[in-house]
Amino acid sequence: RLAPGVLLLSTVVQACPLLSIKPTRGLVDEKIQIVVRNLRPKQDVTLHSVHQSEDKDFWEAFGHYVSDDNGTVTVAKDASLSGTYVGVEAMGLMWSLRPVPGSRAGLRLRKKDVLSPLVFHISVHDGHVSQGFTQLTPLESLVIERWYMAPGVRRLDIRERGVRGTLFIPPGPGPFPGLLDMWGGGGGLVEYRAALLASHGFASMALEYLTPGELKKLKADVNYFETAYQILQNHGMVQRDRLALCGLSFGGAVALSMAAYSKIIKPQCCVCISGSHIPLIKKSLDETFEDVMKDGDKNILFVYRFECIGMCLPIMKLLLVVAGDDQNWPTVESAEDIQQIMEKAGNHHLLQVHIYPGAGHLIEPPYSPHHRATNFRVQGKGKTLMLWGGQAKPHADAKLL
Asked: Of 226, 220, 344, 194, which Cα lies nearest the Cα of 292?
């Protein structure tokens, strides 16, 4: 019994919100599991992701959630009501990243140093928040790492017979299937896709070509690509009879041309991502390179857009990954033309075409952000804003291939 005048105070202690992310360290194409516990039932919360690029720009994504009757949000099961993504999206905090308000125009998020991870700060905020995250104190936060290189992958610099690139060797005794990886007309050395492919068992060589400011030192001609292919083929950790070509954009056009016309390059398969055979059918590859270095690849492509005369593709497996909203290259028309060519040759069974409606030109590794338009350096003409096309959600789906 209490004495007269004494009040009984009832105190309810609520546990602090608990944020769980698994794994906290993994490959960029590995799904993460995000769960928030110890919230109030039906509590409005915001999940926020922020990343600082190697160029020191900040990228963010966020989703608005309501906890269930147990005070839990499970990102893989619960829908984001609004934010940079909506619906049930386990990886929405990755693929919907965008530059924070006030950032420079035309940014593109690309990993330059594959020996270091992408670092993300994931936080939980009370209420549905859409701006001013840096001024807020989160309920809970964690730091996670996303890697292109798995443990045990070896990175080897290639400086041989005038060829420059990087060879990534998977862990294990080998030898492994080999792949020559080529990027677009922007040139230079781009390693992150090759590093990721090596993390999944392919000896992948990222090839450097059309390097800005070094065109006289690094001439990208037919012989250059054939030599690169031979270097990969002759490496002791590569299976000589299991080689592939993979190219994005202008690199896809090069891959198709090499597979069709080279007497040296005889791959077992060719993967062409947002590429076209159109710029390479009226001129030699050397002449096309000269035009690209002088005028930029986009102008050349559209000169030939409706002048397809076809090309003779060899008997090999060919995969075309086509963006349905490609605003940069005529990839849909090219795919239709190649389909007709393969059918006439009786080789349609060797061709696979995957068209992704709503996807833009830059189809990159899974869960990377969508870039509808970014700054692009045209050889000899400086920087311009290039339109790639696509919408964030269908573009993210296309990257899962």
From this structure: 220
